[in-house]
Structures are given as structure tokens and as C-alpha cells.
Amino acid sequence: MEPILELKHIHYAYHTMEGETKALSDISFSVNPGEFTVIVGPSGCGKSTLLSLISGLIRPETGSILLNGKELKESTTNIGYMLQHDHLFEWRTIYHNVLLGLEIQHTLSASTRKRANQLLETYDLSQFANAKPSELSGGMRQRAALIRTLVLEPEILLLDEPFSALDYQTRLTVSDDIGQIIRSSGRTALLVTHDLSEAVSLADRVIILSKRPATISKILPISFQLTEDTPLHRRNAPEFKTYFNSIWKEMNQNE
Fold first, then answer.
1. Which long-range contacts (CB under 8 A, 24 or more apart) does 130-136 make?
2. What pTM does this model have?
3. Pick from 41, 47, 137, 150: CA 20 to 30 A from residue 191's CA?
4. Burial of 39 (C-beta count, 10 Å sphere; 0-12/13-18/19+)
């Protein structure tokens, strides 16, 4: 299987009047189609910087990023980016928030409107299509933000701590909900999180970064023997604690 995403020997540093701050050092990994990969590491180690590089918002100082075998600047691979906050506009209904990306890309049509309606129906938000964001719970808002991303039919989803603004109970429910949505859609996903339990409950593989300047400390495959493999069921499985402790130990060794 050819990887959908490849990072090869990526180096990146931030430059200010005070000098240079190295963020990433010799980062190399690949992601296969349909894989859910999670990146963890100490605070400030450059996890979100990696997503900014993959999305093309910034460029690496050295190294290359390939999407479907092509250099990032030459690739036509559609990338979806979901941030920490839902960024829904209060003056637009949920339906019109979902359509926003299509409007920006000038791809709004009868067929894309139909796709938006189908996604709202599939993920239980159709009854709130005409509601304003303030009328929805935090979890429902995040689901709407995900639908806004999925309606663009991205080949790869970048998720920058999309559950961090939620309270703990809602976070558990929403991460389970959105994790299942992403898997059922067959999308490739790359998630950044500080929450090790979240990483284990969602990932096919966990990439553990060292402290800044970040290097890859370890890549840990995650596999559960479950009849129904969902994030919530994983948290109750015997393997969960073993994976959690392995990641915790690796990160503390780096400290």
C-alpha cells in the first residue's frame, strides 16, 4: 500500500529578533490511507507545528512532505483541517455554517447541498439545521464543525486537539462519536492531542515526540481484540492500561 502522506527528514525553526528556536529535528514518518494516526509529546514540542507544515500553512526549512507521492506544493490532495475551537459563525445557521467551505471553494451546487443534508441526517443534526450555534451543546457544535470539514470530501483530516475545549464528560462522548464518524467514513486522520487516554482510544498508531526540538522518540502500533472496536470500548479493554503506560514511560524517559 502506498502511503497517502510522507514526511522525510523535516527540520523547522522559528526565527525572531531574539534569535532562533528549533522546533522540529529530522522528523520522518508516513501515514497509510484510512489510518488513524495520533501525535503526542510534551507541551510546546511542535505537535501543532507539524500540522501547519502538512497543511502548507508554513514550509519546512529542510526536508520534504509528499501527499499521494507528490510534493506538497504540487499535490491536488484535498486536506481538511479541524481546529481546537469549532469557529462556527453565530449569524449563520448550522446548515449555512456547514456550507461555508463549499462557498469559499466556489463548489456549492445542488449535489454538494445534497451531500451536506445527507451528512446532517447521518450524524443526527438535521433537526438542528436551522438553529444557531449558541443553541447547540459543545459536542453538537464540534460535530457540526466536523461535518463542515467532511462535506469538502478531504482525503486526509488534520485534527488539532478538537476536543480540548470541552468538559471531561462531553469530551469522552464526543471523541467516541467523532472517532466512529471518521472511521466509518474511511478517512485518513492525523490527530494531535495532549491526552494519552484519548490517543490510545482512537489511534491505529501513536507517534511519540521528544521535547523541543522534537524528534520521533517512538512509533507505537495500537491494536485491540474487540468485537466492537470503539473509543469507549477500548478504554475498558485490558490492553488499554498497557498502551497508556508504554506511552507515559516513553515520554517520561524523554523528560
1. 130/93, 130/94, 130/95, 131/93, 131/94, 132/90, 132/91, 132/92, 132/93, 132/94, 133/86, 133/88, 133/89, 133/90, 133/94, 133/97, 134/90, 136/94
2. 0.89
3. 137
4. buried
Q: How far apart are CA 202 and CA 218, in angstroms?
A: 17
Give me 214's grid cell.
522534537
% pLDDT > 90, the chain = 58
Determine the Cα–Cα distance for residues 231 and 198; give it in Å rounded to an integer.
Answer: 8
Q: Note if the bond before 133 is cis, omega within 30 degrees.
A: no
Kind plus residue range of the DSSP H or E element containing 27: strand 19-31
Largest CA distance in the chain: 56
CB distance 169 to 162 below 8 Å = no
pLDDT of residue 16: 79
Distance CA 51, CA 57 (A): 9
